[in-house]
Amino acid sequence: MSSDAQLITVWSPLGSPGKSAIALSIASELTDAGKRVFLLDADTYAPSLDVLLGLREHPAGLAAACRLVGQDRFDMEQLERLSTKLTLGSGDLTVMTGLSSESRWAEVSSEKIDDLIMVASKVFDFVVLDVASPLSGGVGALASSVDRNAVARWAVTYADKVIAVCGADPVSIARYLAAMTQVAELQPKGLVLTVVNRLRVSVLGGSAKQQIAETLSSLGQISVSGFIPDDPAAADLAIRECLPITVGKRSSQARLALALFCRTQVLGEQSKLQGRLTRKAIAKLG
Fold it and tell me: What sign does the CA torsion over 125, 131, 136, 138 have?
């Protein structure tokens, strides 16, 4: 794959901790930051970006793109034809929707995804992949040589950054710890950033952040890169309006946390607090 664009893979264990909504929000924040972003729904089990965005009528998307890749006919013109361009904030986000039916998963292979992203990487600054949760190898059908989970394994292995989404409740945390052993076995080439989504004190009490951070650290040697607070009002508005939470209600606590995570962990910028602390440290040295 070309290194012109940064590849961001958004993954989570099974259990619906908000993986696709996080992928959409990250892509939206990057677009708002002035970056050229391509968001691809590569989930071979439960693609959902078309539903989240209310795209009832949209181009053929991933299946058609993979067919053209197999015929060596896929280029930037075809990518644009098979994608939907959305104006979000101050920029345009290019979205390619996923399979129209999960039964078509055998039409998608990691080799085809690699070739597709090579085309996108020549134009975009970031490629954001929303991938399936299962990572086990050897999952296929007798009539196909394609491994159903190969795309997710490839995306986790070769991404510049993997945003791994964990729910903020005991069951989700247990699932996350178990699934992260499979992630470790893949030996990802890039950073794996743990994001705890839908954080709420009603489940774990006022020290929820500390409890989750200590549990993940002690049981999995995992550090948390971001906590996204539960914000039902903003989430409901995003669903009603078919928009990312980052656009639907920009003042929401969830949106502010996502924006901070994107700036500091994805774009590598300093937060204002980090900047003040750095300036104070330099002043002390002087």
Answer: negative
